[in-house]
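Workshop exercise sheet. Pairs work together: one partner reads the sequence aloud, the other fills in the structure field after running the prediction. Swap roles for the next sheet.
Pair: D.N. / O.F.
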Amino acid sequence: MSDLTLENYLSLLSESITDIHRVNYLDRVKELADPEDYVVTGSAVLALYGIRPNKDIDIIASDNLFRKITKDKRFEQYKAPSGDISYRSKDRIIEFYSRNWPVIPGGETAEQLIASADIIDNIRFSTLKQIIQWKQKYNRSKDIKDVRLIRRFCAKNDLDC
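Structure field:
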């Protein structure tokens, strides 16, 4: 048995408070792309932690995956809340965003967000800190509610969010 390193401890902690089976529609995303090419964000991250269910699934795609999605007839172009051009499935369940969405302090590219993501069952998820930053930037009523829920969850679970 190996020593319990900080990395192992954080991994065990994360696994004990997350459940990938709570995330609706994740199977549809897995069919479309290699997990190395995207990070799951938005309400799906809240669902992962059991904070609230997700009604859709937001994906920040690598440049390569985003180019692929633009040619896929199952997706249609639309203007995201940020004003950027994005793509979503025709049933509006899966939304793909480019590296330009959302614009937050630091201006991370999709590749940087993918590299810094929390990895749960080989799927990359935005961190709760990132979700808070994005939701504070947009500051819609649903975002304000979500920030409250995330902060309450983090306090209850002694997490630094």
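Discussion prompt: The chain has a mean pLDDT of 86. What would you look at next?
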